[in-house]
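#struct-help
A.M.: can someone run this one for me? Single chain, 79 residues.
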Amino acid sequence: MEDNDIYAEARKKVQAKKGFFYHLLAYVFTIGLLYTIMYFANGGDIFVVLITAISWGIGIVTHYFKVFGTEQLGFLGIN
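D.P.: on it. Structure tokens below:
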């Protein structure tokens, strides 16, 4: 591999990791905002927020595995 190829591959990995963290940040902010709105507007009925959090959470987990694979799961005993 040439230096340019190595640089391009590293750049691609960094962009993927940044994309995941932006996705995670959007998730946390949006779910927090939805929770706050539903808590005050519906008297604490947050079922809709839970369904949204679970559904979007599945997408977050899928995105995590696409970007990081299982390399970061050693603490769970998964090698």
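A.M.: thanks! The mean pLDDT is 89.
D.P.: also worth noting: The helical segments are 3-41, 47-68.
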